[in-house]
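Sequence in, structure out.
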Amino acid sequence: MTQKIIFFDIDGTLLDDEKNLPKSAEQSIQKLKDNGHIVAIATGRAPFAFKDLREKLGISSYVSLNGQYVVLEDEVVYRNPLNFSALNELVAFAEKRNTPVLYLSPDDWRTNVEQNQLVEDVVGTLKIPHKLTFASGPYGPDENYQALLFCEPGEEKPYEDHFKQFNFIRWHEQSVDVLPNGGSKAEGIEKLINAADLKRDNAYAFGDGLNDMEMLEYIPNGVAMGNALDPVKKVAKHITKNVDDDGIAFGLEKLGLLS
């Protein structure tokens, strides 16, 4: 059997709304590994935010921070941090509009506002047991791989108009990812596939959110979860069941990867 590489998003794909990993998904991933395939994660989360999941599933390759920090078998193969000067300008721009900003490095996260209920509520939905600290500015140069803006739908428009160095992708009703222009999970996946000396035709990907769209378009065998947003389903080649209805196992079985 030709070796395949299968990428999985985390939230809404591997994990359900309660951030639980269905037993069927865990068993399916073990079966993939037993069959000699490579299992990788492709997520908007930073590495520190899914360390426990990697250890539980025995996964050592991942595309994190929406493609900006890529690891193959525990070795970093690609880094694409935010432009530091432009990020500082964005922070000043946001502060004038009373928009909180969160900075993400591979190992930590911090925000420019203290004890902000909106920030606490939004990041609380991720259920990540890692303390969010306060600092007025971002991490040092080459350490910020993603930022979050906390704003209502439509309020990101001035940022999109003003900061062409960045891409803005909504992942929550009250929060937007800030990525380097051109950065995406698809870009990170390409870097990992090349580093692993594999072919894109032998790659598969499962996702559900707007930040998964480029990934599912890039991968010939893109699979949208049943709980995925409609625009995501439209770009995927396949659609499986909901995450909490054994969607991972069903999709892998349908693709013939568990036989």
